[in-house]
Each structure stands twice: as structure tokens, then as C-alpha cells.
Amino acid sequence: MENSISTQEYWTTITEARMQTSNWDLTQAVTRENMQSIVDEIHRRSPSKQNQVNYGMHILDWSNTELRNELYEMAVDRDNPDPKYNPQTLANWLVVFTGRVPVPLEYDFSDRDKNALNLGLSSIEIGLASHMLIYSAAARGLQCGFCRCLDYEYSGFQTTILPQLGLEHPEEIQLLVGVGMPSDNIYKTWNPHTEKWVNAYKDQGNKWAVEPKPPQSEYVHW
Q1: Contact 142, 35 (CB under 8 A)
Q2: d(CA 93, CA 198)
Q3: With contact defined as beta carbons under 8 Å apart, do 74 and 68 qualify?
Q4: Residues 6 or more apart from 1 whose CB is under 8 A from it?
Q5: Which of 75, 99, 58, 86 minimizes the C-alpha distance to 150?
Q6: Cα–Cα distance, 138 to 202 (Å, whole number)
Q7: How much helix, strand and coil, in percent to the nearest 5, is found in the chain?
Q8: pTM (predicted TM-score)
């Protein structure tokens, strides 16, 4: 076959194309159908212990600007002397990953409390699902931005976030992932709720210099 591209080349192209993103072009449409196809892939292929799915996914567009803005205001590292908000949350779509208590299995004979939220297991599965999310998005020409700087003492949790997401405790929210079209404006992105530009950034491959990983020899053991 002429001009054939190997599976490895496809994978390399996708992994090299994906960047942590927080600058968004909200003028470009990212359809619900496109997001549904990504969710379908996660549902079909993302690993989950005994297929029970120990996490929830809230897929948010901009139809509720109040909720989206509250999630943005909550997504900040307030312990930092120079707190920075996370505009990853201002993407065309926002995926909110939460812990979930699945229906107990009849053949689960462990002595654990099967009605309790197991955030350890939820976090593992959220990691797997979110990893699939970002590459499913990349295959469609979209970018994603991870956010785990969450202020669990933020007042908007009780007034807006928890009741509108149908949750009880702030800690149920484990990860936020923005999904959308990146903007050419690297340093600013638009907040439709406040109708203001806010600071943003796009990882141009420089994060390795700013926040380098340790050498493989420190954590990979052969």
C-alpha cells in the first residue's frame, strides 16, 4: 500500500501533537456529538476494576456560565504565595471527574465497606480514563488541559458547585480536564461569564525546563 502509515507512526504523531493547554478559541465549535464520541471510547475501552466504573464524569459546555465560572474560581492553588488560577477550566468543554460508589457486586467477597467512596480506587480509574480522554481528543484535532489545583474550602462549593453537580462533598471532585480548540493567543483566554480576558499559557514543550522530571533511573527499575 502506498503512503501507508504504521500504527506506531500514528501514535507518535498524536503524542507529539498533544500539549497541556489553557488558551482556548471559544469561537470554534466543538460539538456535543464530538464529545459524545470521545466519551463512548472511554466507556468502551478505558480499564475499570471488574467494569464497575468507580468514577463519574460531568461533561460541561458553556450553557451554565455561573457553574463554569465557579469551577474556575475554585481551581487555584491558594497556598502558593502567588496564587494562579487554572484557565484549563475555561475550555470549550470541561470534564469534571468525580468519585463514584458503584452498585456492589454479588461476587465481591471482600470485607470492605461496599457503600463507601473509595477515592484511592476512583483516582486510579480517573487517571486511566483521563489519559484516554486526552488522546481521544488529540486524534480529533482537540487539545486538553489538566487541573488538580482545587481549593476544597472555596465558598462556591456549597452555594453552586455541589448542588448543581448533585454531589455532597468537595473531595468527590478529583480532576478537571478542559477540552477544546487552542487559541493563537498564548497568554490570554476568554471567560464568557465575566466577559473578561484572563491570563493563560500554552505548553510549548518548555515545561521540561521549568519543571523537569527526575531521571528515569530514580523511579524506573529493571
Answers
A1: no
A2: 17
A3: no
A4: none
A5: 75
A6: 15
A7: 35, 20, 45
A8: 0.94
